[in-house]
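Appendix B, example 12.
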Amino acid sequence: MTDRAPQPVDRLLPSDEARDLISLVRDIAQREIRPKAAEEEEAGLFPRKVFTLLSDSGLLGLPYAYQYGGGDQEYEVYLQVLEELAAARLTVGLGVSVHTLASYALAAYGTEQQRGRFLPAMLGGGLLGAYCLSEPASGSDAASLRTKAVRDGDDWVITGTKAWITHGGVADFYTVMARTGEEGPRGITAFLVPGDAEGVGAAPPEKKMGLKGSPTAQVHFDGVRVGDDRRLGEEGQGFAIALSALDSGRLGIAACAIGVAQAALDEAVTYATQRRQFGKPIADFQGLRFMLADMATQIEAGRALYLAAARLRDEGRPFAKQAAMAKLHCTDTAMKVTTDAVQILGGYGYTADFPAERYMREAKVLQIVEGTNQIQRMVIARHLAGPESR
């Protein structure tokens, strides 16, 4: 058997413009992202210059309206861009997904005046966003959040701590869910807070098993004052906005997961076709061939699942159940595929000399962020059987 490197993913794209976009992303990934990924992840370096390049290239606002600096791309195209970026380096793919999530509340619920004022800089002006819902004592039970926003004339004063914030401490703006009224989901309101506002601060980044180049930190709001013009949507609408954003965000996580899984499969195929034992490539052994076949099949199934959900979204149809299914399946697939990739590489797979061990460490967090996979199962079951009995 001859050595065989994996080929780029053969994608079904809706237009020539989309194909050109994917080509641009692959070129940036090959030149600017992949070569530095292992070294910078090991050193815990955040690739801010890469995000500036992506902004300059029009890649930080793809699913949003062109009139506000976005790319007017279908979600099915945007997600495949995410997959390509995550395959090169998850810190970048996930970062773009989080930025898109952070921009959602303004784009979907802001007034025309708010969108015209704030969105262009967020989507194409080099800014980077973060999404602030979780807190130290409220993760899956997000409706119990304690951060408060108190009305003071024409302003709001925000006080509290958010936890597990991707881009915490480096973001230029934060989309913050804060309590403005009664307990529970109906008392929460969304705000757009500048990263340099007085009273905004971040704790040192968490020390994580993977994604070391992507800062995850608590963000503190100590009497942060913002005008009512930075309230997004109506008072008390924040939790509904947060859940709506997460439906779309979960598709971003699904696409990132398939990107990591594809990178792990590519590494495994390359290694298996080049590594020789007992006089032939190890890819000739049936047990290993079956592993590769199963890995590829699960990746294709995950890709089809997230794209089907994205097409429902693009048509304006309900997609929350399918988004939860995609997030669940794709992230579980990433964990299984990356684990198998390490196994195929054997002892080499367990060393930092090859990227397989990094892919495995990174895949784990995707089963946790933006709703654990246990929460996804609850969401899916509610769509099937209705709410749980009280």
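The longest strand covers residues 155-166. The radius of gyration is 21 Å.
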